[in-house]
Design goal:
Elements: H1 3-18, H2 58-69
Organism: Ovis aries (Sheep)
Protein name: Tripeptidyl peptidase 1
């Protein structure tokens, strides 16, 4: 992922963060079992979030990292061109 993609992603998060959440009419706001709603957070409060994602294509990622890191590879340093 290049710098432009990262900036666009951060911009999207910023823009959506400024919008109020409004679910579609057919969506229900349901909490998972065992969760308790404490109400809305103060808009001035800074929140720290952590997201965990399932890794996919780990072998391919390793191959790509090796290719751009190996001086003998035709793809060496290709990450700098993005």
């Amino acid at each position: 992922m290049g710098p432009r993609s990262c900036l666009l992603g951060l911009f999207a998060l910023f823009v959506t963060g400024k919008c109020s959440y409004s679910p579609e009419p057919d969506q229900q706001r349901r909490l998972p079992p065992g969760w308790v709603s404490l109400g809305r957070a103060d808009p001035e409060e800074e929140l720290s979030l952590t997201f965990a994602l399932r890794q996919q294509n780990v072998k391919r990622l390793s191959e790509l990292v090796q290719a751009v890191s190996d001086p003998g590879s035709p793809h060496y340093g290709a990450w700098r061109d993005q």
